Task: inverse folding
């Protein structure tokens, strides 16, 4: 049956329609292809970065920018600090402070080092709940406290502490970045369960997930893991995260649930060779940093 | 003088009896072929006789249909040898037909309001059906829902009390049913409805397309709920945040 939808005529909308065209769901005209080429991110847009960015990193920044900072970045390497800096760079360039980064202790240090190389003057606060010292502690210009301070630019908190510290009550958070969270429940609590109170303050949610977390145990036996090894069951971390956090009100999962759900049947019915890389952008999952 | 309401109530009484025609024995409450063969006629007789028995008037349209039905079963009034409740003995089929042709009423019928059945296109794949109450029509409209079409469409059809219309969402699974409904119950329609249904019929053969149009990107989704949901519930929602 036919439905008509009118969209804003912008390059980023054109690029997202290109994603839909890549899975065979819509035919687009040359006008839209040309529109998609406008306003593409280049190195000159990112003066804060000390080294050149690869094409894939630029594509990643473009991907996130086109989604207003909301998306899942799938990483092939678990501890690639520069990749995180790339992602963070976009968020910062948009001047969307303050920023909440949800990451475990050892990754927090890596993030802080990356941030310092680009923005030495940003005030960073690490919230450690009851594990923090009684008085605020200053380590390398980072304030460690039990409760979030009110005038910082970047906040760090461990996933497990989200239940103890309701950071959004004290600080207006504009961005949430989640780094390698094995339990999305903690993230869901802050971005979805409290939506009524804080949704207007959180402008974006960026989740960084390692490919390893999206692959079933049986498939990890392969020495080389690729996008085609992603487990498409509805328990899949990447797909669940992308919709529960980024599109909690969407009914799109109705079509996507399960390994044998709508995606595969659609591909079979239309005689399309499965191309899971092409499907990832539809799920707001960025595929460019997986190789 | 025998009035139409008397015949109506008497025929309803007859329809509640079980009759063994071969023996011309009438036995209340026992099994057997019903002399009023049509279930729809029996229901009509029951509904109207319950109204007239408590002193309510018939409408002119109800009276017209009642005359047709009573005339159709005129022979029952003389074939069935039993004690009439309301009529004197010796009523003949000819007398019943004559009363139906020139009826006398216990209470003069009130004028029926003539509301033509009508269907209008509301936009966004929705049709509005306007009709006076008819169990047949309402049941057909209710049956236009189909659980294969996804969660959002389970809300259709619904009855809008303010405008007294049934709102139906048309999709590939109920298109044929919708067209049959319009034809069978003689709903009046205009060019917009014709154009909409024609577009629907052609949708399955066309690809979905996106084109630049002035200040917007115009997307026509053809038979593709995935694309439609993605556009409206993901893309546009994200843009509005």
Result:
């Amino acid at each position: 049956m036919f439905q008509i939808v009118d969209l804003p005529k912008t390059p980023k909308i054109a690029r997202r329609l290109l994603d839909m065209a890549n899975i065979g769901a819509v035919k687009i005209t040359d006008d839209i292809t040309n529109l998609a080429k406008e306003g593409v991110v280049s190195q000159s847009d990112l003066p804060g970065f000390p080294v050149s960015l690869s094409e894939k990193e630029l594509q990643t920044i473009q991907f996130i920018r086109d989604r207003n900072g909301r998306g899942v970045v799938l990483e092939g390497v678990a501890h690639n600090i520069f990749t995180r800096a790339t992602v963070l760079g976009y968020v910062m360039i948009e001047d969307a402070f303050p920023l909440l980064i949800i990451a475990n202790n050892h990754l927090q240090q890596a993030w802080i080092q990356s941030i310092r190389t680009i923005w030495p003057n940003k005030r960073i606060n690490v919230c450690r709940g009851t594990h923090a010292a009684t008085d605020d502690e200053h380590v390398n210009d980072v304030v460690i406290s039990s409760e979030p301070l009110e005038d910082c630019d970047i906040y760090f908190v461990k996933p497990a502490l989200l239940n103890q510290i309701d950071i959004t009550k004290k600080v207006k958070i504009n961005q949430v970045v989640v780094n390698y969270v094995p339990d999305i429940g903690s993230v869901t609590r802050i971005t979805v369960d409290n939506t009524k109170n804080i949704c207007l303050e959180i402008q974006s949610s960026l989740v960084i997930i390692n490919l390893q977390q999206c692959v079933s145990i049986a498939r990890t036996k392969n020495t080389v893991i690729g996008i085609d090894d992603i487990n498409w069951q509805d328990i899949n971390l990447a797909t669940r995260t992308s919709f529960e956090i980024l599109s909690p009100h969407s009914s799109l999962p109705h079509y996507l649930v399960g390994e044998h759900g709508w995606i595969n049947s659609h591909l079979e019915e239309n005689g399309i060779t499965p191309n899971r890389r092409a499907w990832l952008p539809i799920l707001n999952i960025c595929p460019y940093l997986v190789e | 003088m025998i009035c139409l309401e008397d015949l109506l109530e008497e025929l309803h009484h007859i329809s509640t009896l079980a009759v063994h025609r071969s023996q011309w024995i009438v036995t209340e409450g026992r099994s057997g072929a019903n002399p009023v063969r049509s279930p729809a006629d029996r229901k009509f007789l029951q509904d109207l006789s319950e109204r007239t028995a408590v002193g309510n008037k018939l409408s002119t349209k109800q009276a017209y249909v009642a005359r047709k039905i009573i005339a159709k079963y005129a022979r029952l009034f003389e074939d069935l040898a039993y004690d009439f409740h309301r009529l004197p003995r010796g009523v003949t089929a000819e007398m019943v037909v004559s009363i139906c042709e020139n009826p006398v009423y216990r209470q003069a019928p009130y004028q029926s309001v003539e509301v033509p059945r009508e269907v209008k296109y509301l936009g966004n794949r929705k049709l509005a059906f306007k009709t006076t109450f008819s169990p047949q029509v309402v049941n057909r409209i209710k049956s236009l829902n189909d659980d294969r079409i996804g969660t959002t469409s389970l809300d259709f059809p619904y009855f809008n009390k303010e405008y007294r219309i049934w709102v139906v969402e048309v999709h590939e699974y109920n298109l044929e049913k919708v067209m049959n409904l319009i034809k069978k119950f003689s709903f009046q329609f205009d060019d917009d409805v014709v154009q909409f249904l024609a577009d629907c019929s052609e949708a399955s053969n066309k690809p979905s397309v996106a084109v630049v149009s002035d200040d917007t990107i115009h997307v026509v989704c053809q038979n593709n709920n995935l694309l439609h949901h993605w556009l409206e519930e993901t893309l546009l929602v994200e843009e509005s945040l």
User: Anything to note?
Assistant: Chain B touches chain A through 47 residues (CB under 8 Å). The longest helix of chain B spans residues 225-240. Chain B has a mean pLDDT of 82.
